[in-house]
Every structure is written in structure tokens, then in C-alpha cells.
Write a structure and sequence with these properties.
170 residues, alpha+beta, Polyamine Oxidase, Chain A, domain 2, 2 domains
Length: 170
């Protein structure tokens, strides 16, 4: 019951490829931005993927990953075309650019963004303590939604399961 009670928001991600010639030099040092809640219409954040991850940088295009939606800001009812238009228009407005993406991809994730409520950590710790030996939890719904937190939870879960398996008599 504790685990099922963690609410989750629907989100969409629009990935845009923009010609590097159209990307202003003053944005090169940055990895993205968050939109303050009062200013959010549909876009909540944008990452400049090719500036964060070198293997995405090919010298011809800049890859942007635009996040849309959150708890209380539904977006999955919008068509792919509407999501793309919102991403291009709002991100262009935020950056002061006339974005003209060469390529775009829309991804939708229903129920993918856990919403931690008061006392979440205490409830999750109790649920984890009640698990039978050899069973572990990992993922964004438990102790952090960021990539580093998810990696840490996966490593901890793998370590716990591995230790339990090593303790089983042959």
C-alpha cells in the first residue's frame, strides 16, 4: 500500500535538433535552465544535451531536451504537434531565439514523475525495512528522481540482493 500510494505526474519530453550555426555563442557555457513555477505554461525545463554530454555533440547541431508537464500541469492530452509547437515557442521565448529545429521527437511518459508528499522518506524507509531478505527496491519513486539518485538506489539494491544471495547456503 505504501508504494502504491506514491502519486506520479505525467510528463512529455520534446527533443529538438537545432543547427549549430543558429545557436548563439553566449549560450555555449550553459547546460540548460528551469522555468520558475509561476512562469510555467507547459515547458518546465530545458537541457542543452549536446553541451552536457560530449557524445551528443557532432559539431553540426545542438540537441535540446525540453520537459513539459508536472503535477497539476497536465500535457499528455495534447497532440504531438501541439507538444512540439509548445516546446519550440516557449523555449524560443525563454531564450530569446527564433528556434527552427531540423529534427524533433516527442516522448510521453504517463505516471513517470513521482511526487513526494510530506513524510515520504519515512514511509519508504519503513516499507524497505519490511521487505524480505533478498528483495530490494530501486528507482525514482523511492529515494530520489535524479539520475545520480537512481544510480545510487540501483547500486544499493544490487548490493543488498547480491549479499543475500551470497548468504544462501549451497
Amino acid at each position: 500500500d505504501t508504494l502504491a500510494a506514491v502519486p506520479a505526474a505525467d510528463v512529455a519530453m520534446v527533443t529538438l535538433a537545432v543547427d549549430v550555426a543558429d545557436w548563439p555563442e553566449h549560450l555555449l557555457p550553459y547546460s540548460g535552465y528551469l522555468v520558475p513555477k509561476p512562469q510555467q505554461r507547459r515547458v518546465t525545463a530545458a537541457s542543452f544535451g549536446s553541451q552536457k554530454w560530449a557524445h551528443w555533440a557532432d559539431g553540426r547541431q545542438v540537441i535540446l531536451r525540453v520537459s513539459l508537464g508536472r503535477d497539476g500541469l497536465p500535457v499528455l492530452h495534447l497532440s504531438d504537434e501541439q507538444l512540439l509547437a509548445a516546446a519550440v515557442e516557449e523555449t524560443g521565448h525563454h531564450l530569446g531565439l527564433d528556434l527552427q529545429p531540423r529534427h524533433a521527437r516527442v516522448s510521453r511518459w504517463a505516471g513517470a514523475f513521482p511526487q513526494y508528499r510530506p513524510h515520504h522518506a519515512t514511509r519508504i524507509e519503513a516499507a524497505m525495512a519490511a521487505l524480505p531478505r533478498g528483495l530490494a527496491l530501486a528507482g525514482a519513486g523511492y529515494l530520489g528522481i535524479g539520475v545520480p539518485a537512481c544510480i545510487r538506489s540501483a547500486e544499493n539494491a544490487a548490493g543488498a540482493v547480491s549479499a543475500a544471495l551470497r548468504a544462501v547456503p549451497e
